[in-house]
Amino acid sequence: MSSIHVCETNTTTIPNACASVGSAGTDVNGMAVKSACQTLVKRLQPIISKNPKGTWNDWVKEAFKQSISLSATGYFRGYDGNMNWEKGEGHPFTYFVYGAACSEVAIDCLTGDHKNLRTDIVMDIGCSINPAVDIGQIEGAFVQGIGLYTLEELNYSPKGVLHTRGPDHYKIPAVCDIPEQFSVSLLSPSQNPHAIYASKFIPQALQGETHQQSSFQEVHEGT
Fold it and tell me: Which residues pair with 123 in a beta bridge?
């Protein structure tokens, strides 16, 4: 790992790079890096086979002596699900991310005010590459959903002009809106052959819409 150096994104070396929105950066860039590494390993394989007990430095030095290119570019296009929207045939998504959430909410029936007392979330995100990052995404998604379903409200003028265009005009989630007990668990690693190291990406927007339904439904049922 000490030999790996990650440079900043630059259009001089990587033109037309896709956006890393929706937490898809690991899926796309991870597979591209894997493709480039496989190209390099293929070039080094004849040298490795002659010196199987050698180190990485030994193989690279020998490749340099033999004028073998030690740079490669990887690219990942994504899987084609052959989706036909008119016929409803094919696979619109490469894989699915599953999860379940349960919330306990206290409601003031006189004012309509409510408080998230406890929320438990369980997610199946394959073999997590970085559990701390993934759990942070899940927590952030839930809080984003709190604002979407229970705090934020879109107000329009009779002419259709949006009045609530920013935090100055509507409430966003704050520290006091976080559940007093907040638990996020990752399901035992499941295999996902369509992404790097069998991982799954977890976009905050979609997760927020899904998990926050647990609190929203509690408020709805309670009133």
Answer: 99, 186
Tokens of 21: 């929105």
Ranges of beta strands (E only) in 7-113 are: 98-107
Residue 210 DSSP label? H
For residue 126, the cross-strand partners are 199
Q: Are residues 130 and 199 in the same domain?
A: yes
- CA gap 118, 186 in Å, rounded: 18
Domain holding 60, by residue range, is 1-78
In a domain, 192, yes or no: yes
In tens, the pLDDT along 97-111 reads: 888 888 888 888 888
Work out how many domains the chain is built from and give that number: 2
pLDDT in tens, 171-218: 888 898 899 999 999 988 778 888 888 888 887 666 655 656 666 665
* Three-class secondary structure of residue 55 per DSSP: coil
E strand spans, the chain: 98-107, 114-124, 181-186
**Whether residue 67 is found in the same domain as residue 177:** no
The type of residue at 50 is: K
Strands (E), 68-196: 98-107, 114-124, 181-186
